[in-house]
Automatic annotation (TrEMBL):
This is UPF0045 protein. Residues 3-92 form the Thiamine-binding protein domain. Belongs to the UPF0045 family. InterPro entries: MTH1187/YkoF-like, Thiamine_BP, UPF0045_domain. It comes from Streptomyces kronopolitis.
Length: 101
């Protein structure tokens, strides 16, 4: 499964990068395949391991903030591995073909 999630503190002002870094650190230390961009962190693995990382990332932010916002989207597709790479590669292939189907 692939989970795209965003966790951020509420009530701490506009500069939340330091708090978000705490969450991303948890993801990086997990050893699971992941990517972080300006809006979300995507994480790939089995249900229990992915959800455990999300829970720990939220806890890391919550430890320094009394209120936390979590946005989560999941692609649950048993048997698929390396989806973080293969899904993007498919789109890139279509782009390289000039849009031909």
């Amino acid at each position: 499964m692939i989970v795209a999630f965003s966790v951020s503190p509420l009530g701490v002002g506009e500069d939340v990068g330091e708090y978000v870094a705490d969450a991303v650190r948890v993801v990086r230390e997990s050893g699971l395949p992941h990517r972080t961009d300006a809006m979300f962190t995507s994480l790939e693995g089995e249900w229990d391991e992915v959800m455990d990382v999300v829970k720990r990332a939220v806890a890391a932010v919550e430890a320094r903030s009394g209120r936390v916002s979590l946005v989560l989207k999941a692609d649950i597709r048993p048997g698929v591995t390396d989806g973080l790479t293969s899904k993007v590669a498919t789109v890139e292939r279509y782009l390289a073909d000039g849009g031909a189907s």
